Amino acid sequence: MVIGRVADGLGRGVEGVTQAVSEAFFEPVIRLGVTGLARSGKTVFITSLVANLLDRGRMPGLEAAHSGRIEAAYLQPQPDDTVPRFAYEDHLAAMTGPAPYWPDSTRSVSELRLSLRVRPTGLLGGVTGPRTVHLDIVDYPGEWLLDLALLDQDFETWSQAALASARARPEGAAYAALIDRTDTAAKLEEPTAAALARAWTDYLTAARDAGYSDCTPGRFLLPGDLEGSPALTFAPLPAGDSPRGSLAREFARRFDAYTAQVVKPFFRNHFARIDRQIVLVDALGAIHAGPPALEDLRRALAGILGAFRPGRNTFLTAILGKRVDKILFAATKADHLHHEHHPRLAAIMEALVAEARRRADFSGAETQAMAIAALRATVEETRRVRGEDLGVVRGVLEATGKQAALHPGDLPADPAALLAPARDGAQTWLDGDYGVMRFAPAPLSLRAGEGPPHIRLDRAAEFLLGDRLR
Question: Considering the domain 2-140+271-375+453-469 in this protein, what is its CATH number?
Answer without folding.
Answer: 3.40.50.300
